[in-house]
Structures are given as structure tokens and as C-alpha cells.
DNA sequence: GTGAAAGCGCTAACAT
DNA sequence: ATGTTAGCGCTTTCAC
């Protein structure tokens, strides 16, 4: 009683393979009687269509790849969930690829389509910029996530990082904060994501005619909270006076909160902190974290929409979509007292 | 210049398909000259083997499914990362399936293998117990994660929850805690996972000849921190005196910390808290969270080992593997002063 | 409405 | 060491 094939069902039901196939696919024009007869044979034999064979025959896999740096980074795991849900709603399944920011792994992602594994790719690159992506990919449907300023042949979805960072700074300025730091510039980060946030931070200060102090820009060597905590600790020890802090992401903010707490600095009384990504990490931090929140659901839906169009044959030039964001105000950087009392 | 096939390469190189296949697979017995000639044709044409076709021909997909309740639950996202890494080391790719604890979705997982999508399944069931899994799965290689006491035809990997919970309780008792609560029993949870942790909690108290107070067992309606915070808040409002708390997972612990903090209860001075899973959520909580830590790496490696054996044809009865765990002591439940001064 | 047969692209016997 | 060829299981024109 091994593998039951379409042909077996056809034989038992006494019909052709085509008819069985029609029943399996709910093809409209089959007589009820035929349908019943075939269905019975299917149930009887416990027939399951072989997806691999179907894929070979149709050339469609019904799968998309989601290539992200780390599966367990809160932002990416939360985003993955939305992507998975949106994909599922559109009849796609998701193959999650962890690139660990490794260039070779990132390159390999774009080959998956060519190897017939997936129909398209949603890709958050870290080690290559969009020009390289454009050069590498040939006719693979790709939607890029994250920051990129170059128009390329792939589609892009992102939030307006510059504006978002400006809003974060403005929020702190409205509370009377005057020494606002930015954490953190990551060494070796070539994506421009941090650049845009940093740019927005500076623009926010310039807009308010505040001085720019380069020492207020904190650098880190990687994306971990440990590194972020170290950077903040050293800044405090160096006597860097600051009363506000805009973080590149919630993980950094989490490390920062830890460093501030252990140094005896009160948040938000002494230093107000703004995170980025609105992850669960920040929602339950102490104090709870004010954070710039990309609309992840909209991000996922937009990415799938664009990718779907490409898979369905759209060949046009790369499209850019800006999805909305908001500032979720929590304890670490509450609404200004002035606003409250007004 | 569309799809380049194996046959095209063979034609250009002026050899047979078999020879091309040999080169592609690094088959040893090919003359260097042949290899060079073929390789040149491959590069020239930009040939990429079609994985789907290969899968059809070999019957192996090189993929395994990982079916978990939620992609973005910290425990599962961290576990996923280890699974993905171990799988990758063994030449497998991982298809992550989010079941959302939905029975239909869980059932569908077991069909994937039969449909030829994956070679095997690593499955953390929530809505079905292992008997049901055993009944459903036919000859699908499956490794079960999470708690289950029944010997079945599938393999199991888990930690010893009862012992782990006992250790958590013992840790609190050693600090002189006398009113230790358990959070939380989840309504509708049929997996026995919580049961075992609860059992260990009770056993730990009994071992120390402490009284069991049913009011110290806190119930919740779902797995969110919100629910957990609610349960703790209500317990405090009801005047339930407690000085220690063992949580079913770090998410619950996170919610508990929040509720305790907002109620003005100090941790660990007034209430010491032990979490479960050792996730990033707890590592950066305030105070940092003492947590029972399953060895996730070992868990992943063991699961892949067992699954690999099944895929390679092992047919024996279900095996049970207990992997190690430890108690990671942090601020929320530090080492007893008595121990420190000894 | 239903049947017959030619692929989809690759692998693995078997042959040379 | 390399070539030939029959599948793998399903889809899909194209007749009937």
C-alpha cells in the first residue's frame, strides 16, 4: 500500500487522469456523478496530490522566500508573522531564510527563484546595497525591505526614516530636552538604514536651531543590546551630559535602559528614551518604551501586493512605497508636561 | 534566452546529460578536461539546476517543516533560530509553519510530508495531544517538541519540566520565601506542558513540607503578557499575600513584573520572580529575570538528529529524549543571602 | 464533459 | 568514464 498516484485513483474510479485532476481542482464542468465516483476512490485510497510533481508541471511553487538577517530579532520575528499571515491569505507559503547578514547567504537568496524553489523573494538586505541587488538579480521577482534610496528594478517598501527620526527628536524637544543623543551608528552597516535615521535626528535638531554635537552620536560594533549598553555606559562614564536619547531600534533602547538604570540615571526624569520598531521588548520594558512604530501589517501587505504583481508578470520599473509609521508614547518619553497641562 | 536546462548544457558542451549531471554533483570520476568543458558551458549559459525537478526525480526535498504556535513568541523565535542553524548544518532547509494553535493548521502540518513538500516534520503541538498525533500521522517522520507523557510512534524531545519547576521552587525556598505562587494555568491548554510545571511546583513545596494553597495558583485565559499582568494585579488586589512567583514562561513573568511594579511591589525584595525559557525578554527586563533555561541548542540538535534518523529509514518505536536545563540566576530572584555569606 | 499523450527538468539504472 | 533512456507524478493541450 505505498504511494497512491493520480493514475491509481483514475484506475479505481474507472476514469481518466484528466477527470480525476478536474475533481481535485474543483473544475466546474464535471457531472455530479463523476465527481462522486472519483471522490470515493480518492477517499478509499487516501490519495494526496504530490505537490512537487505539480510544481514541476506548472512551474509555480506557491512559495515565497523571506530573507531576513535574524529570525529571532524581535522586529524581524514580528514582521515575519505578519508576512506569513498576509502570504497565507494570498495562497502563498513562506520559506524563511536567515542570512545572518552574510553576503554569501544573501546572494544565495536570489538564486532560489532561479532554482525553482520559490516564486518570489522578499528581501531585507544588510550586506549589499540596492545597486548590487539590481546587478545580481536577473528576472527574479523581488521586493526589498529596509532602507534604500536608489531606484532599482526591484520594488521597495519602507517607512520614511528621516521624518520618523525627526518626529522622535521633536517629541523630546517638546519636553524641554536639550542634549539629545543618537544611538547607534553600527560599524560596517552599509544599508543606509541607520544613516537615514541619523540624518533625521540631525535634521530634527537643526529644525529647532539646536547645536549638533558629534559626541552625542554613539557608535556600536554590532546589533546587540550588550553593545548598546556598553556604548551608553562609556558615554556616561566619559561625562557626556545628555537628557534625551533616540535609539536606532528597540534592542538598542533596551540595552540603553539597562545601562542607564545600573548607572543610577532615572528614565524619563534624567534621560528620556525613544526606541524604534515598537517590539514586544519595549512594550514590557521598565519603564515601558516610547517607540517609533512602523506599521508592520501595512508593510507586509504592501510587500506581498507588489510581489504578487511581479509574480503575475508585471515587468515595470522598481516601485517605491512608503508605509505609515507612528510614535507610540509610553513611559520612557512621555508626553510633555506642557502639553498635558494645556 | 529563457530557461536553461541540463539538456541545453549537454548540447553546448557536446556531451551527454549524464556527464553534465556528474559535473554538477562533483562526481569524482570525470576527466579534468570534461569537467572544464562542461563547466564552461554552464557558466556561459548561466545554468541553474531546477530543484523542483530534482526533488521529483529523487523523492527527497531537502526540507523539513518546523510547526510552532507563534513565530514571534520569543521562545519559539529563538528556538527556530537554533533549529534553522542545526538544519542548515545537516543540509536541510526549514519551512516554518505557524499554527496559531489552530487544530486544522496543526493537522495540515502532517499532510505536508505526504504531499511531498518536506521530508520530515518537527512539531510543537498545542491543540492535540500525542495520541492524536500518533493516530493522524501514518508513516511521516515526525519529532515532537514540548510536553507529552505518552509513548507514541513519533519521537519526543523535551526537558524535565517537573524537575525544573521543583528547582525553581527550591531556589525561592532557599531564599526564605514562604508564599510561593504559580502563574499560570492556561484555560484550554491540553498539552500537559503547564500541568507538568504545575506538578513540579507542587512537588517542590511538598518536598519542603510547605502547605499547598490553591489560591496561589493563578489562572490566565491566554499566553499574553497582558493576561498575566491582569492575573497578578487581581491577585494583589484580592490581598493574596505572596513573596515568590514561579511563571510558566518568560512572557508571563514579564507581565508579572509589570503588574508588580505598577502596584508598588518591589522585586526581588517583596516578591522574587522566576521565569521560564530564558528568552531575550527576560535578559533585559527590569529587574533582569531569573529563568529556567532549556538548552535550546541541544534541543534543536537532538530533534534534528532523531528526525534525520527517521528520514533515513529508522522505523523503531518512538524515542524520548530529555535534554538538559539550568536555572539562570539574575536579579529577580538572586542567590540566597545565606548562600552568599556562607 | 472526458480521454490520450506529450511534456515539466532531472536522476539513476543500465549499457557501452 | 561516458552515453541512453525510462521514469518521478502531475498538468494540459487537443481530439473525441
UniProtKB/TrEMBL annotation, chains A, B:
Cite the InterPro entries for this sequence: HTH_LacI, LacI/GalR-like_sensor, Lambda_DNA-bd_dom_sf, Peripla_BP_I
Indicate the segments forming the HTH lacI-type domain, all copies. Answer: 4-58
Single GO molecular-function term?
A: transcription cis-regulatory region binding
The source's domain of life comes to: Bacteria
Pfam families the record matches:
LacI, Peripla_BP_3
Keyword annotations for this protein?
DNA-binding, Transcription, Transcription regulation
Where does the UniProt annotation place the signal sequence?
A: none
The record's annotation in PROSITE patterns points to: HTH_LACI_1 (PS00356), HTH_LACI_2 (PS50932)
Q: Enumerate the PANTHER family for this protein.
A: HTH-TYPE TRANSCRIPTIONAL REGULATOR GALS, LACI-RELATED TRANSCRIPTIONAL REPRESSOR
Protein name (Swiss-Prot/TrEMBL): LacI family transcriptional regulator
Native organism: Arthrobacter bussei
Q: Read off the lineage from the record.
A: Bacteria, Bacillati, Actinomycetota, Actinomycetes, Micrococcales
